[in-house]
Amino acid sequence: MEDLGRMSVEDYVLAPKIPLVVAADGIRSMSNVGSIFRTCDCFRVERLMLCGITPIPPHREIHKTALGATESVEWAYEQDITKVLADYKAKGYRIYALEQTNKSILMNKVEIAADEKAVLILGNEVSGVSQEALDMADAALEIRQEGTKHSLNVSVAAGIALYVFFEAMFGGN
What we know:
The chain is of the alpha/beta class. The chain has one domain: Alpha/beta knot, CATH 3.40.1280. Helix content is about 35%, strand content about 20%. It has a 7-stranded parallel β-sheet with strand order 3-2-1-6-4-7-5, with helices on both faces. α2 packs parallel to α3 (about 60-65) and α2 (about 30-40) packs parallel to α7 (about 155-170). The protein is globular, with a radius of gyration of 15 Å.
């Protein structure tokens, strides 16, 4: 791993982050939570908010997939997703829900400014983003899918969406 030039946790904490907060809205699987931690680390996300029934570290099942990212990614727990969204909206963050709706915008069509501050809501594995969170979102984003399922695992969807935000906000740096 040293040959790959990876930064230490200490250096990571000090490194610039993209102005994106990920809000996990009632995600139930500890494996998915751990994977989301790891993806947030990969794309230098500002913060991960764990909300509702979303499990929190420390837990063996989260750590198994996070591979140490619970130590590098800034995170917090708040029971009420609407409080989180209201707090960030008041700070000037744009709120996006990663959800299929009748008004959702395809991820490859959304324009994200390099200096935009945003929150990306990830929803429950079965029921998706809660209606309360959707009602507070400025827009719903959808990942184009052409198969028969039109459904991705939340951690896979998070990886795709975070890459799009990373490229828009940090690409070329």
